[in-house]
Design a protein that fits this description.
This protein has 201 residues and is of the alpha/beta class. It has one domain (7-175): Aconitase, domain 4, CATH 3.20.19. The chain is built from eight helices and seven strands. Strands 4-3-2-1-5-6-7 form a seven-stranded mixed beta sheet. It is globular.
């Protein structure tokens, strides 16, 4: 997993509430276990018309938001089934941060396991950022994970909370496997000790 680095980018507003994982990445894209290539299916039911052409009314199809790396969205984002393909699709498209008033628990955890930062803010703060995003490419948000700050293009700073352990994992690019490998020496010592104590195991 890549280390999370501070960055500044255009943010796109997705004002819907209760966007579930099936809307994020519909079931027909779940046949793969690869983490790449899913960006084309991200929000496909909203992004594309029935004939496969772009839906010009969908936010990510608008020129000013096409290079967005931040999504500001409504309450209860990522609800529904627990598919890990949802954060994979967001990341493959280029979204690194999702900001909302709340997330479904499993989706929230899956974000951290895949190097994505979900940020929870209160209603007033999300509304302020929604207004900021309406300015499109003329307004950007700065994401500073180390200091837990979001900086608007006007210089306003919004602080956010995050669990210290999850923050440590993102900053150091540690997924579950990498965390286990950090204990590789201890695991090896234990295995050696067990062989000596219980050689029949």
């Amino acid at each position: 997993m890549e280390k999370f680095k501070n960055f500044t980018a255009v943010a796109a507003p997705l004002k819907e509430i209760n966007i579930d994982t099936d809307k994020i990445i519909p079931k027909q894209y779940l046949k793969t276990i690869q983490r790449t290539g899913l960006g084309k299916g991200l929000f496909s039911e909203m992004r594309y018309n029935d004939d496969g052409t772009d839906n010009k009314n969908f936010v990510l199809n608008q020129d000013k938001y096409k290079n967005s790396k931040i999504l500001v969205t409504g309450d209860n984002f990522g609800c529904g089934s627990s598919r890990e393909h949802a954060p994979w699709a967001l990341l493959d498209y280029g979204i690194k941060v999702v900001i909302s008033t709340s997330f479904a628990d499993i989706f929230y955890g899956n974000c951290f396991k895949n190097g994505m930062l979900p940020i929870v803010l209160d209603d007033k703060e999300v509304s302020l950022l929604m207004e900021e995003t309406e300015r499109g490419a003329n307004a950007t948000l700065g994401i500073d994970l180390e200091n837990q700050e979001i900086t608007t293009s006007d210089g306003n700073i919004i602080n956010f909370k995050i669990d210290n352990f999850l923050k440590h994992c993102l900053l150091n690019g540690l997924d579950d496997i990498a965390l286990t490998l950090e204990k590789d020496k201890d695991i090896g010592n234990y295995e050696t000790e067990i062989k000596n104590i219980r050689p029949w195991v």
